[in-house]
Structures are given as C-alpha cells and as structure tokens.
Design goal:
GO biological process, one term (chains A, B): carbon fixation
Organism (chains A, B): Nitrogeniibacter mangrovi
Number of strands of chain A: 12
GO molecular function, one term (chains A, B): magnesium ion binding
Distance between the termini of chain A: 48 Å
Radius of gyration of chain A: 22 Å
Largest sheet of chain A: 4 strands, antiparallel
Largest interface: A-B, 90 and 93 residues
CATH class of the largest domain in chain A: Alpha Beta
Helix content of chain A: 25-40%
Shape of chain A: elongated
Order of helices and strands of chain A: EHHEEHEHEHEHEHEHHEHEHEHEHH
Oligomer: homodimer
Protein name (chains A, B): Ribulose 1,5-bisphosphate carboxylase
Strand content of chain A: 15-25%
CATH topology of the largest domain in chain A: TIM Barrel
InterPro entries (chains A, B): RuBisCO, RuBisCO_lsu_C, RuBisCO_lsu_C_sf, RuBisCO_lsu_N_sf
Strand order of the largest sheet of chain A: 2-3-1-4
CATH superfamily of the largest domain in chain A: Ribulose bisphosphate carboxylase, large subunit, C-terminal domain
CATH architecture of the largest domain in chain A: Alpha-Beta Barrel
Amino acid sequence: MTRMHVTYRIDATPMQIEARARALAIEQSVECPMGAVRDARVRDAVVGRVMDIVPAGENVFEARIGLALETVGDDAGQLLNMLFGNSSLQPDVRLEAVDWPDGLPALPGPRFGIDGVRERLGIPRGPIACSALKPQGMDVEALAALAYLQARAGIALIKDDHGLADPVSAPFARRVPAIQAAVARANAETGRRSVYAPNLNGGARKLQAQVQVCRDHGVGAVMMCPLLVGPSTMAEWVADGLDMPVLAHPALAGVGRIAPALLYGTLFRLFGADMVIFPNFGGRFADDARRCHAIAEAARAPLGALPPALPVPAGGLSPDRVPELVDFYGPDVALLIGGSLLAAEDPEAAMRHFVDAVEQQGRT
Amino acid sequence: MTRMHVTYRIDATPMQIEARARALAIEQSVECPMGAVRDARVRDAVVGRVMDIVPAGENVFEARIGLALETVGDDAGQLLNMLFGNSSLQPDVRLEAVDWPDGLPALPGPRFGIDGVRERLGIPRGPIACSALKPQGMDVEALAALAYLQARAGIALIKDDHGLADPVSAPFARRVPAIQAAVARANAETGRRSVYAPNLNGGARKLQAQVQVCRDHGVGAVMMCPLLVGPSTMAEWVADGLDMPVLAHPALAGVGRIAPALLYGTLFRLFGADMVIFPNFGGRFADDARRCHAIAEAARAPLGALPPALPVPAGGLSPDRVPELVDFYGPDVALLIGGSLLAAEDPEAAMRHFVDAVEQQGRT
C-alpha cells in the first residue's frame, strides 16, 4: 500500500486531538462518515490513517496522516486537493509537511534545475542577479528600453513584473518580441547571456499562443504563477516538454495556510519550477529568516531523483544586502531586486552596483 | 479613467493606517516605489489610489482602493492577481469586497444561471436536492450503482466527490460514461431529469479530453474547482462556449483571507460558475450563518448584466435541516447532502426522505 505522510498542525485540546486527527484523515480521503465506507478495499487502502500525533505547543499538535497515493494520480492540482483541498476550509488546520517514503507522485519536477538554469545564463557558480520590468502601465517601447538597460548592466535574469499579463498598454504578443530583441541586442554588445522571462498567463488557448510567441522569438525562460494559471496547467506544460526554464511566482499563495517551505520549496518544484520566487525576510512581506531559510533548503534538498530548484528571494531588497543574503542563503541563489533599482536617482548606476555586488560574492 | 473599488481590511494603528493603505495601493498596482514611476500616464491612470479609510474596530480599518481595470484585461487569474496577488502574502491584509462602478471586467459570468440550471433539471421553482458520489476508491461499477440509486430516489443533481479526479480505481474516461448511463436509465424509469456533474480536473490537454467525454455521452453539467484548475482555465472554457452548467467547488479556497461572499459569490460567478458550493454553517466547516447568508446573497445579487448563480451550501448537512435551510436561504438554493445519506442504515430510504423533504419546501 503506497501512502504519502502528511503533517498537519492542528489547534485542539489534548482531549479533542485524537478525534480531530481522525476526522481530518477522513476529510482528506473518503470525505464521508466511516459508516458509508462499505467497501473493504477502500477502508483498507484509501481511508486516511492517523500515524502519530505529537504536541507542538499549548493546545497545538502535529498529526501525521497517511494518505493513499492512488488518489493523487499524476495531477498537480489533485495533489494539492488531496493534501489540503477541503481542510484548507477548516480554520484549525495548517498544512506543514509531506514525506513520500514510497516514492513521489508522477509529477514532472524541474526540467532544467539549478544546473540547467546556470548553463543557460552562462554563470557556472555563485549568486545570480535578477530584476523585474515595472511599473505596469508602461508601453512596450519603455519596457524594452528598460530591459536593454538591465541587460547592459549585467542583470542575468530579467522577468516581467507579475502584474504584467496581457494589458492593452503592453500586450504580450507585442511586448515579448520587443523585450527579447532588446535583451539580445544588449547581449551582443556585452558578450553576456542575460535571459528574459515573460509572465505566462491565462487559460489554455492563451497560454498556447504565448508559448508559441516565446519559441518564435528565442525567449530563454518563462514565469508562471502556479496558483493563477493552475498547478495542473503548469505541470502539464512541463511534463509535455516545455523547452524553457520555469520561474514560479507566489501570487495568491497567501490565501491558504500551507507552510511556505512546503508550498514554494517542494510543491512548486514538483509542479516543474526550476526557480522559485518567495518573499524575503526584512523586506515588505514580514517573513522571518528561519522560514526563508527553510524555503531555500527545501528547494535545493534531495527530492526523489528531481533536480534542485533555484531559490529566488525577493520583495523590498536593496543591493547593500547582497553580501548578507549570499552568506545567508549560500551561492546557489538568485537575488531579485526590482523597484529599489528603478527608484534610484541613476537607475543604470544602481543596476551596475547591484551586479557588481553579486559578482563579488561566491563566484571564485 | 476606469477603476474598480477594492475594499481591504487592514490591521494597523491609527498612526500607521494612511501610509499602510498607500503602500497597499502601490503593491496591488505598480508594485515599486513611486520614485520609479516616471511615466505621467502611469502615475495618473495606473497607480492605485486610496479612496477612503474607515475604522472597523480597534486597530482595524477598511480601506477602499481604486485599481485600474486596464491592468486586469479579460483574464480571471489576472483579476485575482490584481485584487490580491501580492498582498495575499502580507498577513495584515484581508480582501473584503469589490465594486465595479465603471463596469465589470470582461469575464464570462454564468452561461446558464439559475434559470438555465432549473430548465435543465426540470425544476422551475423551489429548492433542489443535490448529492455526491463517494467515497473515493470505489470502482466504476459501484459508483454507477450509487448514482443510479440517487437518481431513482429523485436527487436532482449528482456530483462527483471533489476528491474523484482520474484515479486508477475509477478513471474519468470509464467512470463518466458509466455513471451518465446509470443516471439516464434511472431518468427513463422515473420521468425525472436528474443531472450528473463529473469533476473536471487537470491541465489543458486532460480537460479537453474530459469535456469531449462529457459531450459524447450527453452529460448535463460539470464541476470544477476554480483554484485547482485555475480561474483563467475555468473562465476560458466558459467564455469559449462550454455547453454545460458549471458547478464550482471551493477546494483550496482557504479560510477567510478573501471574504467568502466575494470569492464564492462574486468571483467564482464572474469566472463562469452557474452554481457555487460553499461550506454551510453548523456543519464541519465552522462557518457562521451571517457569512453563509452573505455568500448566497452575493451569488444571486445583481452583477452587471450577468445571470445569478445558484448557491449550494454543503458540508455535514442532514435531511432534517432542510426546512430550516430553505427558510434561511430562500427557495433558490440547492442543498448538497452526501455522506450522511450514505452512512444511513438504509441509504435508499434516506435519499428518498431527503428528496421528499426538499420537495415539500417552496415548490408551490
């Protein structure tokens, strides 16, 4: 019998916890009273099973529950569904961690991983400078001009602002070729290999057209928000052989109560992310250092036979934090600095300062 | 200038709130320091604008922010992104409500609405009995036999358990034709028009194949979990003319960071849901009555020119609550009872009892 071991954090009294954990095991599997489970195979192989319960504070427990892998199949959305679909609606439960002692579900994982991303960027070791094209509302020419500046300054990875979808001010089909051309021109001048990652968005039809634009114009990577395009959609693209590294963005991720290390580090990676953006500590997202460290560790930790994903801390960073952050995360990291460079009196100089700071760290 | 008015609930002191609201307006629009916004049009038409701030308790405020509709375009995921993409990651913010004084974004809304669903079910007025096929893990024959019993008993809407995706125990391509045939056979015997709603799941390729199975076999409705298949995916299917009413399931919707009335009642409906399942009060999801009432009201309230969606409260209901719930929600409601019918000593009698209770309410 093949199960995954799922750890939930539950608010309950010592009197309640055993019954609460049993109810949760049922909620996340057969989702009906045990009296309605009349099939012996289902009772034996499918009903969730409470494996252990340990105290985690006053009236807080961690319960480990074994859930049948057969209920997940090979679908990313269905994995999330079985881990937390219904219990996300119950305020006393939080999804903490998952172990797959019997093997991972059949999901793609990163196609490129850290090594593949480094190869594409031409940066074999050390931290990677990443920036964003913003503010939204700018037209195609202004965005392309900004991308040119960033690539000229040596920013290795240049991503769309996650708010740039397909607006009239800069429609995807016009924006992406123009920005890609600007980055290619800068690369020809610098001899670097900066990569542009546009923000894929929309339903199947739109995504198909967008991927075609990227392929037609030699775009080097793509960004997706797994919770906006849908985890299944993202994983299907990767499983079907998407030929560009995927940068995952955490938009909307805060709605549920899933431990960030699990969501960004493990699940987004399982869905096919080669790089994962997450809110850094000390910025404008209030995440603490321990939690951020756990995200980066999870993204790079052994996970079946899957390659590691590159952690990309972001959110209110500035170049003077580069040494501290590389020291904290280690050299396998991309640092994403967007707004603070653009707000500088001399944005070009700020970009070069950022790139210099990154290149002084850990490339030796 | 066309804006939507978005209300956020923010934890802040009276000293902090103005700056906090301004920062939020920026986070959900240009997402960079104002110093980086050098384009006058962007500053004027795109940067979010704090419209008003009112106290909502001790150190809690409601701030109304005007966000440019041009940043949303016609994409459902992008609407969620602009409403709450980044600020969902900030623990002091909650998304409460949206008004569209300048018109709705170009999203499909329900194609069928309450009237279209009623027509399909042959139930012109009064509450509607709904049940679920569970537990997961049962094989196709057992699920079809259960669907037959439910349809024979007069359950009008029979949905897959949301945990039934495409498992080896009951693959979609074999399950759906068998269950549809069972329901059709029961309908032929009873003269009723019970409808089966299978759970669409997966990425674009899988969904395409699943919709084809549904069409080939005359399936009367479909279920989707918008946050699992992706809001954009769901809305694109509806916009492209999906010819079956859509039942939306709240899996992964989490608790409370987006007000449930907004998420289930308004947003899921904008994405194309004809019927919206939500956790009822007094069941196993701890939602309070006032909040549930607001969800049902939002699903049926005027919203541009869109038809209303049918509220479907669910989660630990039992037939003896039918009169109370119809009284509470009014007759435009479907009551979803799954597990408690199946756990009864005589499930068939329990189903008939449920249908009788529903049919005694408000059909006259």
